[in-house]
Structures are given as C-alpha cells and as structure tokens.
# Entry
Amino acid sequence: MSDVSTTPLARLRQRPRDSATIYTVLVVGALLWSFPLLTAIRQSVAHGGFGNYWTVLTGEFNQVSLIRSFGNSLLIAALHALFVCAAGAMAAYAFSKIRFPGREALYHVTLIFLAVPAVAVIVPVYYITGQLGLFNSPLGVALPEAALTLPFAVLLLRNYADGIPDSMIEAAWIDRAGHARIFWHIFLPSTRPALINLGALAVMWSLQDFLFPSMVLKDAGMTTAAQAVQTIESAFGPTPEQTSQYFAALVLLAVPAVVLVVAGLRFITQGITAGGSKE
# Structure
C-alpha cells in the first residue's frame, strides 16, 4: 500500500505556492456556490425581518404547508435510502463474495443501467404506479427513485466489499455459518462506512428530486419540499413584504438538504475513499 504522503495531492499541498493556489480556488468556488443562498437570505429579511420565517413556517400557501412538505420529503427520502441500502448490500454481497456462473456479466449489465436517465422511464413508471395503486403514496415516489439509484449502490458497495478479506468469510464457513449469518454479522458491519455514505447520498438526492413527486403526487397535502418551491410561488404577491416572505420560504425549503450535507460530509467523503482492510 502506497504511503499517503506520496500521493500527487499530498505533494501539491506540501508546496506553499501550490497549497495557496488550491485553497484560493476552493474559497472562490465556495463563494460562487453560496452566493445564491446568501442572496436569498438577505432578500428574505429585507422587508419584515426574521418574522417572515415564522409567517411562512406556520401558514399555508396554495394549500401547501412547509412543515408538512418537510415531513413528506423526509419520509420519501428515508424509504428511498432504506430500499437502496438493503437491496444494494445484498447485491454487493452476492457479486463480491458468492461465486456463480455469469456473475461478472450480470454485474456489468447492472452497471449499464447507470446510463439510463430518469426521463427515459417516465411512461413505464407512470403505468406501473397506476397498476399498483401507488399514486399519492410515498412508496410511489421512493420505489422508482430507488430503482434508478440501485446500480450506483451496487457499484459503490461492491467496490468496498472487494476489500473485505475472503479469509473472514472462509472462517465463518468453517464455523458452519450460512449466507444469512455471514451477511448480517460480518458483511454489514464491515461495510458500515459505505452504507452510511450511500444512505446520506440517497437522502440528499431524494430531497432534490422534482420529477417523480410531480408525476406521482397530485394531492396538495403530499407536496414535497422540492415541489413546494414552484407550487407556492403564485401565492405571494409582488409587494416587497410578500417577496421577502417567498425568499424566506425558499431558504427554509433548502435547510434540510444543507443540514444533511453538513452533518454527513465526513461520512460522504470517507465512504467514497475508504476501503476494507487488506490481507
């Protein structure tokens, strides 16, 4: 295993001029990305102050409540993450630790679906959702989201699982442990960092999804935070105070995703780069 201090990035950071350039680029990039959010915060308190946040948080606009939309988004995101982590972990265990004919071919076929865009499955998803009676249901959104995320989950978890020593699995087999026991007691604990990373990404992607909620959720009471940005726009007039209230609503709707990224940043970065112990 190569020493971390000899990596190209580490060598760049050891040179003062290059290190200053790197941090300058990062700071400029951060300012550019944060400018829209800072602008929204400034506009939200320009007329009416911080009371605008309480007004939009406790009111309903076009029959949409921000608090209820937060709850809808978090429920769908939790279901999405649960389905993706459960199915992805089982698939990764099979592709990494179980030898069967056609394993690599099936794995590569699974990865091909990474190239399928969401818009390409709108018609079949709409048809299947209607057949299953899942319109205006959190499952109707979480299931297609999970289907599109699953190929990435298999790629991430299998790459991580390949770093788990086969000797651990062989020792469990000698102790007469079956696949279920090995998966639950050895595989899942060993892949916990990658699972946390996958779960955080799945929740973040679900909170930002606008396509499937708009297609499946027709009831105003089921509106998600991503939908609410557009749904409540016509409820605010052109007056300066109402404009500030709309910006306050936009800031509040962005809070869950921002909090998630800040809280899970350590797990996201570690999950991408970490691997299991090597023999």
